[in-house]
Amino acid sequence: MKFLSAFRAWLVDDVGWKIFSLILAVAIWLTVHRILMESALPIANTGGSTLTYGNLPVLVVAAASDVHLYRVAPETVKVTVSGSPEIISVLQANQIRATVDLTGIDSARDLKRSVDVAVPSGVTVVSVEPAKVGVIVPPAK
Asked: Rounded to whole angstroms, how far apart are CA atoms 66 and 110?
């Protein structure tokens, strides 16, 4: 009997504090559980799908009156693009143009120029490797 009265006193005494503690414990558990579940979700890629095209030729753009036979090294680049999955699924390598603008170049040694990449609308260039290519300028004839 003494045990039952002690148990009843333990259960009933300070019932307000016990309910408050229980509610606080549940709130803390739900908060921690939500944070853990959000961190386990994959990060959404806002750029859509990405695709890499290797060995795209670098085209040289020069003035029509220029008689130099320019060459670039390396002759190809690797281009990574992104866009919506619908556009990326039908994108072909021949729709991407990598060019180097050499208008106004007469002669130079160890010349490096940036590679410009043109892509269709809805497609974004993510990276170009290498970003710059060396230009070999042979002497004019």
From this structure: 19
**3-class DSSP state of 8:** helix
Q: H or E stretch including 34?
A: helix 15-40
Please state, in angstroms and rounded to a whole number, the distance separating the CA atoms of residues 52 and 70.
27
SS3 content of the chain, % helix, strand, coil (to 5): 35, 35, 35
Residue of 30, 103, 115 whose CA lies nearest to 70: 103
Q: What is the pLDDT along the chain (141 residues), one digit of tens a residue?
A: 788 888 888 888 888 999 999 999 999 999 998 888 776 654 444 557 888 988 899 998 877 776 667 788 899 999 999 988 888 889 898 999 999 988 877 666 668 889 999 999 989 999 999 999 988 877 655
DSSP secondary structure letters along 72-107: EESSEEEEEEEE-HHHHHH--GGG-EEEEE-TT---
- Other CB atoms within a 10 A radius of the CB of residue 141 amount to 6
